[in-house]
């Protein structure tokens, strides 16, 4: 890790922080990031966070769940304004998802100081651990534990692809797994949490806005569709004698697209498993996983019901048995209306700032039940996320920092 700043000198600016972090956990082959929870790359990101806290004279602490905090003012005073995001990544993720929120948070603290704004409430920058869930398969473990949305015992038992438990991985990285669990005292000190994040879509770009405020996170879920037919020889079985589950599956994929299009929702089959999986064999089982999201729960239920109906009709036609299992469901998260409106008012003094929903989950969504929570989005002209193509222009990043500083000043300094 490069040293951030000599004692007494000015803390590193946005671009310097960005460059330092850009080198950590980057795969030379793909150009993407592999910053998985409790790995050496994650440890390096965490060391960087700690250096940034020190360079600004902020009080650093790691909470019981491994989330990192950098405090300006006394946390015990309560009603804190907290900002930040996460530093871990999906496999071969982009540079912006997560780190933009953390780097912007430190830069916004610098901006407040440059303005001479003095917070009347404690202020903190936070890095939530294991947001992407890339290693242990569950997203937002750091914030989920803190909010009591997963039990300590269940979390400790999570395993990565090599069979290493979360408890063991934490231990290896120097964190006590026995300490993890719900942290209501900590959350009770937080008066507002604002997460800045790169937009994972093109709404801001299409509207010509550098920054927007989040209204809500769409409800979303995952469903497993099992199509059971009959394995047989691809070269000798007459078409009319087949019970081919691949055919029913294919029709269901097309139906998902159509249902989503008609409802203004999203439906995606992105993962499929085929048995026996022979080129010259009709499949006996096709298992497909549906991810679907919509603006409200009623629409989502209608979309999934429509897809299931199409699957069953196809199954009857093809002589294939269809079973549908809901594997997970996350209800709609509406961000605190008062805080959201306050942000829109603080940022909309010259021209109205767009207020838009998102289909992606965030720590802010996990915490929204426990503390007043809001999000800012920064324009991503590619609209691509979870890939090295994810992008935000330098000017837009600067606009994000200014907006975040305006929000922190408005919430904490007046
Ligand atoms: Zn993220």
Automatic annotation (TrEMBL):
Binds 2 Zn(2+) ions per subunit. Pfam families: Peptidase_M20. Allantoate binds at residues 222, 280, 293. It comes from the Bacteria. Its cofactor is Zn(2+). Zn(2+) 1 binds at residues 86, 97, 197. Belongs to the peptidase M20 family. PANTHER family: ALLANTOATE AMIDOHYDROLASE (PTHR32494:SF5), ALLANTOATE DEIMINASE-RELATED (PTHR32494). This is Putative allantoate amidohydrolase. It comes from Actinacidiphila reveromycinica.
